[in-house]
Amino acid sequence: MNTKKVFKFGNWVPVKMIVAPMLLGIICLMLGVVTNGLFFIPAMLFMAVAVYFATAWHLFSPGGLNIQSRVQDLVVSHISWKGSGKALDIGCGNGPLTIKLALRFPEAEITGVDFWGKNWDYSMLTCLENARLAGVDGRVTFKKASASALPFEDNHFDLVVSNLVFHEVQDVTDKRQSIREALRVLKPGGVFVLQDLFLLKPYYGTSEELVNVIYQWGMKKVNFTRTCDESFIPNLVKLPFMLGTLAIVHGVK
Ligand SMILES: C[S@@+](CC[C@H](N)C(=O)[O-])C[C@H]1O[C@@H](n2cnc3c(N)ncnc32)[C@H](O)[C@@H]1O
């Protein structure tokens, strides 16, 4: 897939995370000039934050290390599925993983859902345009929904995937609720491959606790894989709320 020119997959670092600290840095710099340097230290701190997020933005993009696409590829590479039936991508953003699924499994019917909130520069319209460009628009459907309350019956999908979404879900008190909701819509015998910041203990507990609780929800097989250790992920973006706590939970219902 040529991600460089035509596709609009967006960036996991929203531009406002670069622009806001940069503007604050400039304001502090100006205040520093009129207050004999009083605001120079905060100015430097804001500028450093802006530079950090700008660098992360670049590394994530196809023009940098293409980390976003490679992280999504980790999900695809953990899928062990024959490829016929229905697949769901939860929190699909602008549809990059949904489209990767459609290309990898040409016989499957793929659905991407997202709530497309204001925090992200993603939309259903862009998903549809990306799917058209990839030539998979006939087999891919997009739907607006929250990961916490999926508009599907129990046991509906043969494959459920998600990438970097569950920690973002705000309308739940326990981030694990969205995992349970994802597994609710999976058929018995269906396959799940979910990637998120699963090593964030305040959200998910330890990896052993998370695996145990998922077994208690009736899964036949549950595996936990640390993907934050992948060699293509530079240390710079390994902060806990970046990719430093990335892991995949995968298995069979
Ligand atoms: C880091 S982006 C990942 C997008 C996509 N999975 C990818 O790999 O590029 C996080 C996504 O989670 C979505 N999201 C956040 N909260 C959500 C919710 N409650 N329900 C559905 N999607 C949600 C956002 O809209 C955004 O598209």
Instruction: Tell the overall outline.
Output: globular
Order of helices and strands: HHHEHEHEEHEHHEE
Radius of gyration: 20 Å
CATH T-level topology of the largest domain: Rossmann fold
Strand segment count: 7
CATH architecture call of the largest domain: 3-Layer(aba) Sandwich
Query: Can you tell me the CATH class of the largest domain?
Result: Alpha Beta
Estimate the mean pLDDT confidence: 96
What is the CATH H-level superfamily of the largest domain?
Vaccinia Virus protein VP39
Q: Could you give the order of strands across the largest sheet?
A: 3-2-1-4-5-7-6
Distance between the termini: 31 Å
Give the amount of beta strand, in percent: 15-25%
Number of helices: 8
Percent helix range: 25-40%
How would you describe this protein?
The chain is an alpha/beta fold and 253 residues long. The protein folds into two domains: 16-60; 67-252, Vaccinia Virus protein VP39 (Rossmann fold, 3-Layer(aba) Sandwich), CATH 3.40.50.150. The protein is 37% helix and 19% strand. It has eight helices and seven strands; from the N terminus they run αααβαβαββαβααββ. It has a seven-stranded mixed beta sheet with strand order 3-2-1-4-5-7-6, sandwiched between helices. α1 (16-34) runs antiparallel to α2 (40-60) and α3 (67-77) crosses α4 (96-104). The site of S-adenosylmethionine has 22 residues, from α4.
Q: Can you give me a brief rundown of this structure?
A:
The chain has 253 residues and is α/β, with parallel strands linked by helices. The chain is built from eight helices and seven strands.
